[in-house]
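Rather than argue in generalities, we reproduce a single protein record, letters for residues, whole numbers for local backbone shapes, just as it appears below:
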Amino acid sequence: MAGGHLSIEEFFVRLSELFDSRRQKDHGSIFLTQKRLTYKETSSASAPSSPSSATKVPDDPLADLHPPSPLPILVRATNGKSKEKRKDKIKLSTVVEPEALEGFFARYAEVCKSGMQALKKRDRSGRKKAKAKKRKAGGESEKKG
């Protein structure tokens, strides 16, 4: 994926394939991340007319929380292969514009839910046994004292 970001439609197709490949192998991890995409501010002819946008105010550490216009979201997915298996690593990313966020997240939730249906329930029987032992051991020490 060195060529750049995928289109939203292609991202969903490839993400579904990634979930399916994990399901067929019966194990594996998929990492999903999202972050705000920021663009580097470029100086233009209109920049001198607005001095506040041309320079950052050093007193305001949270100035970037209020951008002049809504920023797009970068969504990434990977199968989490380590350095040793880098040739098998699958990396997907797409950029979602603010206007398309609601529709994107509705479909994103559907794809993620369908991909997680094959997950096995966690085996908590060992955890329950450990708690029972701890209670029993704790109760005996109180009786001795």
Q: What stands out?
A: The longest helix spans residues 125-144. The chain has a mean pLDDT of 76. The radius of gyration is 24 Å. Residues 56 and 63 are 8 Å apart (CA to CA).
